[in-house]
Give the backbone structure.
Amino acid sequence: MSKRKVKLADNTISAEEMASLADWLKQGHQVTKGPLTRQFEAEFAAYTGTKYSIMVNSGSSANLLMAYSLLEAGYLRNKKVIVPAVSWITTLSPFVQMGFDCFLCDSDVKDLGVDLNHLEQLLKKEQPALLILVHILGHPNQMDAVRRLCAQHGCLVIEDACEALGSEYKGVKTGALALAGSFSFYYGHHISTIEGGAITTNDDKLYSIMLSIRSHGWSRDVPEADRQAWKKEYHIDDFREFYSFYYAGYNLRSTDLNAYLGRLQLKRLPEIAKIRARNFELYRQALPEFWAQTSEGGFVSSFSYGTYVKNRLEVSRYLLSQGVECRPLVCGSMGRQPFWIKKHGVTHLPVADKVHDFGLYLPNHANITPEDISHVAKHFREVAEPI
Ligand SMILES: Cc1ncc(COP(=O)(O)O)c(C=O)c1O
């Protein structure tokens, strides 16, 4: 009998979906961004319960586009941002690249979102224009309190929901909980378009600016009213219209090939989210002596099962010998990453440090069965020392 293998991530694109894509490609469509991308965007916005969504080529591009567009929209009163220490490099790096002062916020002990006391301290002391949240491993931040604190201090809030597609806070989906939200459709995420991502928002002005900056800074994709208004303001004639740039943009577009897959994947998302939530619960029941992440929001479309152990290296080696992959809890604390230390020295934060030193996550994806979880939990308990 071959040894059971439990990988950290697995393909979400089925053989049937690939075959369907191949048939579609053979029909000879123009594959660049076109009607399917717009259809995917409408469907994705409907799923998250937002007015708009914008498809891009990765979750990192989504974060970059949100950050630069907020700046260009004139929404930020200064270039100061609070970023969770436990996040992802491209949650933070757009702000570093754009010359923001970045303040790392410690993590909440239960949900690993922002710690409310530390958030309040940073808001009072630094008066930043912006907070970007990350819903770690699918668990929503404490949005009521976050919104209240940020409103008190005039700080805008956006979400990096790349690990939380399908999760809900009090009945509202992530991505619809703040001014704008980002998603990733990379391999191993809830749905995949090979590479891919999206931004959601209800804000008309930001939407137009993001559509422009996604594609070079031109106005071709921008809703008609804004397109005409911009054209008029800068006295652009019809001949020059397609080659006029209103922003110093990027090219962050995706393609209809990716959108074709995205539309198929989106149909399966509710089922995928349910399996991930079930798996999280099975892990929790199977590992009662280990710390488990909890959150107040409601439905958790779990990304993976995070916990703490004293002996991570030993655990990871032993699990691998049993066919099971595991990894650090996201990537620990940004305040302890080489790129940060080079510039600022080490930033110590108690909970983020604990995640950095003892955090580990176990596999969860839609192809993991209850039997896989029993296998992982059995071998994990044989060697892991709880904290
Ligand atoms: C919180 C978070 N933000 C952003 C990203 C980047 O997404 P992508 O790999 O699509 O660029 C990731 C990737 O895992 C992530 O976990």
Summary: The two ends are 35 Å apart (CA to CA). The chain is about 45% helix and 15% strand.
